[in-house]
Structures are given as C-alpha cells and as structure tokens.
Design a protein that fits this description.
Helix content is 21%, strand content 40%. It is built from seven helices and 17 strands. It has a single domain, classed as hypothetical protein yedk fold. The radius of gyration is 18 Å and the shape is globular.
C-alpha cells in the first residue's frame, strides 16, 4: 500500500494540458511530501465537475459523505480494487468506505513524482523505497474523491484516496505486493468524465486500460525490525503474491 507520496508538479502546465480550471487555492507549482497517515495533508486532484475538468486541493484520506466525523478513524488513504474479506472476495465497489464514490463515478487523477513503499523481499528488502519514473518526471495515478460536510458547521471537506491493485513487475521484484494504478493517457478523459458506467464496468475499465512505465527507485530509509518480522511473507505466501503480478 502507498502510505506516502512526493509531489513536485507544475500545476499551471498540467491545467493547460487537460484544459482544466486550476483552483486559486493552489499555487502554480506545488511541492509536498504527503502522508496518508496524517489525513490532513493536501494533494492536488484532477477531476470532472459539472462537465468541467478542475484541479482542486483535497485532503488525502477519503471521508465518505455518511461519516459521522472528520477525519474518519479508520484507514482510507488507499482503496484496494479487490481483497479477500472473511473468506469472500470483496470488490472496491462493495467496500462501504469507497462504495458511494465508486458507484457514482467520482474518479480522479493525482499527479505524483514518486510513491513510497515498504519492501520486504528482493534486493531492497528491509527498506522504504520511493518509486518514480526513470526520467524523474511526474505521473498521474488513479483515485477516488468524495465530499464530507460537517453536520454542525456546514463546512465541506473534499477528500481523496489512491486506488491500488496487483503489483507491477518492477515493484514486485523490489519487494512490494501492491501498487498504484497508471492509466493510458488517451483514456484519462473517459475515466474522469463518464458518469454512466456501472460499477462493474468501471472496474473492468480500470483493469483493461492500465499501463506500466519505466521505473526507478531511491532508498529512503530502513524499515523497523518489528515491521520486518510482522510483514515479511513466508516462501509460500510470496509464491501466492507472485501469481498476482500485473501484466499487460
């Protein structure tokens, strides 16, 4: 899962590229190392609202509209495409936290320069790694957004989450079991603007239009011994993960 990202992006250029409206709340150039654990760090988010592409600031950790408080007490900075829950396969559109946003096609793209992941096998085992492009440019990853309204004050919190799925080969080889999702740029418009897809169709759209890229990595720091002991998979578990690796 991606718990932290590094953002270093020319938002004015991004807005021009997508003919999007850039929020005056954001600077033309945005730079931050954000943590989903914080729930208050702000990411620039590209999404469609009232037939207009917009780039707005959103708090990273999705708060569904029905949540009783903000930020939610549970983890919501990543949204798994699918997982096994109590022996049953559960899809992202079944998960209560993300069901409304996914069903209502509240999809977004988030520009990041690198994603930080904990690695438990391979040549970078025991390290926190930042995964980026070989040319060090930014890339857009798929996400969901939702708005939470404070029942007392009426204040609105726009929030987002990053969608994760089976690992790219490069990430698996370096010791991680999941990854963020990159979509073919020619499908970005459809991903953001179509509001009539059924949840099952959106799920298949994401899976079918996913692409890979030329990756590079940088070691950020060591993982704690306690975390290594808790999260390092057994040989049998690693073999199971290997069978989930994404391929075009």
């Amino acid at each position: 899962m991606c718990f932290s990202v590094q953002v270093d992006i020319d938002l004015k250029k991004l807005a021009q590229q997508y003919k999007a409206m850039l929020s005056p709340k954001l600077p033309e150039h945005y730079q931050i190392t954000a943590s989903g654990y914080m729930k208050t760090d702000v990411l620039p988010v590209l999404f469609s609202h009232e037939n207009q592409l917009r780039i707005e600031p959103m708090n990273w950790s999705l708060a569904p509209s029905w949540a009783k408080e903000y930020p939610p007490k549970w983890s919501s900075y990543n949204a798994r495409m699918e997982r096994t829950n109590k022996g049953r396969k559960e899809y992202i559109y079944d998960t209560p936290t993300f069901r409304d946003a996914f069903t209502k096609n509240k999809f977004c793209l988030v520009p990041i320069k690198s994603a930080l992941e904990a690695c438990y096998w391979g040549e970078t085992a025991g390290k926190i790694i930042s995964f980026g492009k070989q040319d060090h440019s930014s890339y857009l990853v798929a996400g969901l957004y939702d708005s939470w309204v404070d029942p007392k004050s009426g204040a609105v919190k726009n929030t987002c989450t990053l969608i994760t799925d089976n690992p790219y080969p490069y990430l698996f080889e370096h010791g991680h079991d999941r990854s963020l999702i990159l979509l073919d740029p020619q499908d970005h418009q459809e991903f953001l603007t179509s509001k009539k897809r059924r949840p099952e169709d959106s799920f298949q759209f994401i899976r079918q239009h996913r692409i890979d890229q030329d990756w590079s990595y940088q070691v950020e720091r060591d993982i704690s011994e306690a975390s290594i002991k808790k999260n390092t998979p057994t040989p049998a578990e690693l073999e199971q993960i290997k069978h989930t690796v994404w391929s075009a």
